[in-house]
Amino acid sequence: MSVLFHVFRHDPEVVQVPAGDFLFREGELSNGKMYVLAVGKANIILGDQVLETAIPSTLVGEMGLIEPGSFRSASVQAVTDCDFVAINESRFQHLVTDMPHFAMEVMRILVYRLRQSDKRLEALASGVKEADEEE
């Protein structure tokens, strides 16, 4: 089990995802939950590009918790058999109350992923600009 699993030891909602299957797919309607990978390895995918490989203790789907009813911005596919611990808003509020640093960790992850997205956009824009200049 992951380093963070002790936080969820009381009645965790564990979602088992066999290797090759998806926890969720880009464009699907969010179920208002985020997940912590407890066991296994999974890829976070946008389109056909792997953005990140999740290992135990990695949070995924955080935007779906923050904005329930929105569409998933990426897919999460199990590379190996995986166990994910589901976190709904109520559990999240409890975690933040008991461990305020948990909220900071979620914000750090959001900021990191936003910065990575910005870098990809800059690289795409730069590539498009260079291609336009060559014409």
CATH architecture field: Sandwich
Order of helices and strands: EEEEEEHEEHH
Structural class: alpha+beta
Q: Let me know the average pLDDT.
A: 86
In spatial order, strands of the major sheet run 1-8-3-6
Quick take:
The protein is 37% helix and 27% strand.
How would you characterize the overall build of this protein?
This protein is an alpha+beta fold and 135 residues long. It has one domain: Sandwich (Jelly Rolls), CATH 2.60.120.10. 37% of the residues lie in helices and 27% in strands. A four-stranded antiparallel sheet has the order 1-8-3-6. It has a four-stranded antiparallel sheet with strand order 2-7-4-5, with no helix packed on it. A hairpin with a 2-residue loop joins strand 4 and strand 5 (49-54). It is globular, with a radius of gyration of 16 Å.
Using brief descriptors, characterize the structure shown.
single chain; 135 residues; alpha+beta; four-stranded antiparallel beta sheet; 27% strand
